[in-house]
Amino acid sequence: MNTNTEFNQSLLQFIAQSPTPFHAVETMKSRLSAQGFEPLYERDEWVLTEGGKYFVTRNDSSLIAFTLPSFDVAHRGYRMIGAHTDSPCLKLKPNAQVTRFGHHQLAVEVYGGVLLHTWLDRDLSLAGRVTAKLENGDLASFLIDFKRPLAYIPNLAIHLNRTANEGFSVNPQEEILPIIAGSQTELELRQLLAAQIQHEHGIEVSAVLDFELSLYDTQAPALVGLHEEYIAAARLDNLLSCFVGLEALLAGGDQQPAMLICTDHEEVGSLSSCGANGPFLEDILRRISPIPEQYVQALQSSMLISADNAHAQHPNYASKHDARHAPVINQGAVIKVNNNQRYASNSETAAVYRDIAAQLGQTVQTFVVRSDMACGSTIGPITAGQIGVPTLDIGLPTFGMHSIRELAGSQDAQRLTELLTHFCRREKVRP
User: Fold this and answer.
1) Which InterPro entries does its entry note (predicted)?
2) Is residue 430 part of a domain?
3) Which of 122, 201, 252, 283 has the most CB within a 10 Å radius?
4) CATH number at residue 194
5) DSSP per residue over 205-254, as a string?
């Protein structure tokens, strides 16, 4: 097995173990702990040491990991890599049980910009966080993952919708309620969740009080194509970047101060206590550099690379791209540019990235949205606006973004990891 295949297998395993942001953070925590990173807790007093490696989480769904080879962050700055842990999906509503026409169903809310029709006719499972009352009266939260097909949203047969192939819409209130059981089966959702806590954690709870649960596709991630040119998986946007950033930090973060920032809620605007548009990152940076002047110095000696998937030029819809800025899968990462500040890239941050790529013999692509189409955004401009750090937006070319199953190149992820590893080691990240 060659190194790229081994790398991709590790990536696929990471995605399979991370059906929700909670699970993604738990998976990253395990990897960091195995590599000698120490956990920090925001309610504790911190005592950091030169040469230390640390990670801290918030809401169990966002994580910041950093290395301090030197305390002189005011002059060295940080090599920062940003990504997000969440993906568009279907989340259970609080009163989720619905019984209609002989079937138990689950009421769901659409999270983010979901391609709804891709969720039809898929084997779905359930995972997330459950908060319960223990036998001793304490409250505790548990991650659960049923790991097997539990639910299904069947399509309407074409005999009953003759114009389906001419295009149809999906009503998110009425038409995406997954079937979970026949109505002859007794079903009490909170009892089911309590039994799952017992099964996964060996703990009996007296009552399930609340939950944050998402549906996900049980089809395993895979390498596809005649020569395995592609990666097909759920949640490539943006677990692919989380994995690449984590690997780069572990491989390259022992020479210069480096930081990985993986935050939740990007798909819905990032405005939360643990999102990029909240105080999480600034809180951590100010605890590392509590002197105001040194805090500003550190940020202005730093650079953030925000990694979030880019739209590859689809061969069946080529006209959706500006032909001169149309990324190709397996041709390297993409610098995202938008002069209206939907992306935070500028000539200086792009030049640093291009310089590293040239040293490694890697190609660099550029994406600019068509001038007659709206442009998406990322955590890049949000973070740059929050803390003032020079920022570059990049991403790996992807097909089917926000589908239940997305497609990326099997050569791109390891190349980007190599580039970001060198970024973490780079002595100067400002021109």
Assistant:
1) Peptidase_M18, Peptidase_M18_dom2
2) no
3) 252
4) 2.30.250.10
5) EEEEEEEEEEEEE-SPPEEESTT--EEEETTHHHHHHHHHHHHHHHHHTT
The residue from 177, 192, 217 where one domain ends is 217
Residue 99 and residue 76 share a domain = no
Residue 297, domain extent: 3-87+234-425
- In 70-204, beta strands by DSSP E: 79-84, 89-100, 103-111, 124-134, 139-145, 179-182
pLDDT per residue as tens, the chain (431 positions): 468 999 999 999 999 999 999 999 999 999 999 999 999 999 999 999 999 999 999 999 999 999 999 999 999 999 999 999 999 999 999 999 999 999 999 999 999 999 999 999 999 999 999 999 999 999 999 999 999 999 999 999 999 999 999 888 999 999 999 999 998 888 999 999 999 999 999 999 999 999 999 999 999 999 999 999 999 999 999 999 999 999 999 999 899 999 999 999 999 999 999 999 999 999 999 999 999 999 999 999 999 999 999 999 999 999 999 999 999 999 999 999 999 999 999 999 999 999 999 999 999 999 999 989 888 899 999 999 999 999 999 999 999 999 999 999 999 999 999 999 999 999 999 88
Amino acid found at 244: V
At 52 the three-state DSSP class reads strand
Cα 375 versus chain centre, distance: 20
Same domain membership, residue 195 and residue 109? yes
pTM of the entire predicted model: 0.96
